Amino acid sequence: MIKSMTGYGKAVAELPGKHLTIEIKSINSKGFDLNIRIPSWFRERELDIRTMLSSLQRGKIDLFISAESTGDATGYMLNKALARRYYEALKELQQEVREENPDGLLPLVIRMPDVLRPESEEIDPAEWEEIRAKTLQALAQLEACRAKEGAVLLEDITVRVHGILDLLGQTDPLDAERKELVRNGLRKSLDQYLTSGTAAPADANRFEQELIYYFEKMDVTEEKVRLKKHCDYFLETVNDTGSQGKKLGFICQEMGREINTLGSKASHAGIQKIVVQMKDELEKIKEQLLNIV
What we know:
The protein has 293 residues and is of the alpha+beta class. The chain has a domain at 150-289. The chain contains eight helices and six strands. The chain has helices at 46-53, 80-97, 106-110, 125-194, 204-218, 221-237, 245-265, 269-289, and strands at residues 7-15, 18-27, 32-37, 59-69, 76-78, 116-118. Strand 3 (32-37), helix 1 and strand 4 form a beta-alpha-beta unit. Helix 6 packs antiparallel against helix 7 and helix 7 (245-265) packs antiparallel against helix 8 (269-289). The termini are close together. 20% of the residues are buried. The mean pLDDT is 85.
């Protein structure tokens, strides 16, 4: 089953002295592009986080972990130099906008990133297990969002592929009509030439041979058969497990090649009109594939 590359997940972890918010966002990308923003004291677990998120396979992934002190923290040290810089910057901004803060700026400064840091840079194993569980919870939300949107995309592209197959079937009677028109046109031209009084008698067998050779050059049966097989393969692939976006894109390229050849070989207005409709459906499918994992 296909999935969309777009999704969002969020989870909250309550730890001693800390309130952590974990957010994961995913949007379209040609490959797997992971961007992580986490507190500095959390860096030792970055590789573990990247390993967890590798299951997303494709997309531009942003993970944010923000930590906020709850005020009852123990075992923490105050980064006074950083706190002063935050305080001066906030005080300057407060004067510029002329806004009074009746509670003062210090409570806000304490909540700024890295002002309160653990005395030990190592994460407690029990805390890490809680953070890991919440990260997986946010990841599950994102995957559910991807699957839900993927179901909508699946329905749309399936309808469009069936539409191409229906249009392909409409070319069958037009193809027979096209051959008859070509035969009658050549016969009429030959008759006019023979009745002009300057031409030598024509060999009927040779005329039929030339006609067969001409029909073989303009025959589109092979293109129609290949296009149908590509469409059938596309419909099989969308139900496979795993990342199928790139594979479906390659199949679309083959479908487009057969549609273009069909249009160039079929010198018939009705078939050309159908070819244009098939190209329109194919372009809409390609647009949807840009958002598929």
